[in-house]
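=== RUN LOG ===
request id: a7f3
mode: sequence -> structure
chains: 1
length: 681
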Amino acid sequence: MIYYHLCYHLSGAPSKDTPEWWRMHQEELGFDRSGIDEKNVNSANQYLRGCNCYVALITGFDIETMEINIYVACSVCHMDKFRLEEIVHPDSDKCKWELDHQEEITVEAYKYAVDSTCYNTRSSVLFEKFGIDFREPLYDPFPFRVEEKILEEQTLTLEECRQRAHEILGSSSLYEELDRIYSPENQQIYKGHPVHYLISAGAWGAAEDIYELLIKALYNNKRLISNRITLFREVQRKGYKDSRYQKVIEAGEGGTVIIELKSNEGMGRFATDFHEFTKRTGEILEKQKKDTLFIFVEITGKSLNDDDAIDNILKKADIIQITEGTGTLQDARNYLTELVEQVDFGTEDKSDVYDYLAEAETYSVTDIFNAYNAWYGSGLKTHVYRAYREKKSFQVNVTKAPNKPYDTLQEMIGLTEVKTVIDEIIAASKVVRTRERMGLNTQGASFHMMFSGNPGTAKTSVARLLCKILKEESAISSGRFVECGRQDLVAKYVGWTARMVEDKFKEAQGGILFIDEAYALVDGSNTYGAEAINTVVQMMENYRDRVIVIFAGYPEKMQTFLEQNEGLKSRIAFHLSFPDYSPDELTDILTLMSQKRDYQIDEEAKEYCKELFCNAVKEENFGNGRYVRNILDQAIIKQSARILKMETREDISREEICRLKREDFRIHEIVKKNEKRIGFA
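=== RESULT ===
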């Protein structure tokens, strides 16, 4: 239902003796009725001209203002706001009614108006019929935070929406959706919601700006018939089981329901409650997705990263993901200026907010809101609570915008041939998707791969980046990366292995299934490993268009693995070899790792490490990148101990605490393949 308040002004009554005139004509005008028919709540008053899709309730006539207020509940299926004034109009030849104003109201405002009338003894009948009979008494509060509001109606063109998107540093995903909403291919008529949204942002304020723009754009294109928002945040443990959770969502029909996807302390320590919460929410979404717009908000870094839980929602409707964007320093300053203009305390100069932005090439929306929040706290101390004005705030550090997955891959040390093959894979996947859109035959297209290389040659890292790259290129739909080994595919009992293998393929639908140390499936002691391999081959064919399988392992052992099934080798389209790193490459990897952890290695230490690497590469299976990481970890530990022993550690500079010296590095012992050790292995 959608709820409206209409205020009519009485202009046809005599200017004198109005109370007496009103008393004489009250019954004739029909205002002695409550608008509620006990036999059929949907029956309207006589003055509603018999239209059975509205229910109206009159609060009474105000003699001083000569006004009468009518509160209307309209079913979504009969909603036509342009006919509302015509239908919901007092009908009498005794006086003239003029509409003073009309506004959409929240469910709570409607309930309050009904309860405030002289007919409130029947309000429970109306509330039960509309499904708004939920309450939040003091002794039984909602196990979630819920808020209702009505967005202001605003006429917006596509260009105005794009301008607003620019002001809030909108990402390409936001611009693309605005173009779809305003596309001339769409009919300007409400028939339900074809898609719903998932907004991923680093701050709630950023998500709020995004969803408000989306709602306004949809309303302007008649894709929404209500500006009412029902907002859910901080759902507590078992809160989804409360019957009022579903009732409040159902009451949002016709408008927009916004739900924060976040696992907090009140949700419990484990993922079970969050999983059940998303499962219940997904069921409600599936039931109401036609006439209720659902927008889910994920706060990056704070929401629970649970692919299975998120799937409970993503599989129930078509969901479009909108992410926050980034901008230049000037863009960040413009956004900050808009935010500080909205504060409710006076400041002489608001430009000092710029001081809270650290220097960076790009700024995310999260960076901007962090700077604003820091400035706001300082402003409270300076202008409101002046006793605290001497307490200084520190500058907010900017979170660097992460590199795109493809750029991250290109920055990796070495792997020249691997990068070349991956470029071919990307190109091939683009062509296949283009042929699909054109309706051309794509039979035989396969992207299954084999990664062979010694430990520490970045096989897993490259596979994860490849998954993200293919998702960005729309070559795969979900971007899921499911990593598994023998223990995840081979069961302990007969008949269970095939089921376990298929479950992993189902979990990886729309993404990549990465089988690490795949040769471990080869087991001569029993048939379970062979059963797993045979099932994997079968599933590779069954899920060919939905799952990309990557087998990974040591070169010699992977050749043995391929010989276990005749159909396995023919189904693998790409064979990528990951060579061992050279001493120079290992030195570059060490430098890159240290920089990412905010450490600098002096030249003497680098030369020493290069000597270590020259000796290490002569040993079999020395660990490659893992060996480098172990050396760096040990160096950081030794540096920490060295600094704590310094007599003047109170005056340690930032440069000193970030510097790794020659004395911090030591030889990381390599156990040779045939070396015998005394003691336990």
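=== NOTES ===
DSSP finds 24 helices and 19 strands in the chain.
The first strand starts at residue 2 and ends at 10.
=== END ===
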